Amino acid sequence: MSLHRTTLRDAARAALKANARFVSFKFRKAWAQNIDTDGLPLISVATPGELSKSVSRDAIQRQIEMSVIIQRKGGDALEDVADLDAEAAETAVLTAIGPTAIDVQISQTDLRFSGEGASRVSTLDMRFSILVMTDRET
To answer: Distance from CA of residue 26 to its chain's centroid?
Structure first.
C-alpha cells in the first residue's frame, strides 16, 4: 500500500500551491519528458523510490525519495530565478513534511537548461530524502 507516499506528495503539493511564488504555476502529478513551453511554468511532485526495512513485528521504517520538479521558461536571468524557486520550494516542502517524518532532508538539486535566447527552459529537480515509520500492513 502506498498511502504514506500519497500523503507525503499531497502535503508537498499543498505547501507549494500555498506559496505565493508558485501561484501562477500549473501542477501535474506526472508528465512526459517533453512539455510544450506554452504549458509552463509547471510543478510536479513524485515519489520515485523507497527503501524499507522491518524494525519490529509491527513497524516498518521507510526511506522515501521525493522529487519536486519545477520547469519554467525565461531569459538570461533564468538560473537566478531557478535558484529562488529552489529556495522557496525547499522551505515549503521541509516545513510541510517535517512534522510528519522522523527526518527529512534535501539530498540533491539538479538544474538543466534547454533552448536558446528568450525561449530557454529550466528544469529544476530537487530530491528529498524522507524517513518515516509506518505500521506493518496486514
So the answer is: 14
Residue-level pLDDT at 61: 94
Of 131, 1, 128, give the one whose Cα is nearest residue 65.
128
The Cα 49–Cα 96 span in angstroms is 20
Q: Where are the alpha helices (DSSP H) in 1-138?
A: 3-18, 78-97
DSSP conformational letter for 136: P
Alpha-carbon distance of 14 to 68, in angstroms, equals: 13
What do you get for the CA distance between the two ends of the chain, in Å? 10
Mean pLDDT by groups of 10 residues along the chain of 138 residues? 83 97 91 72 94 90 95 90 97 95 96 78 95 80
Amino acid code (one letter) for 39: G
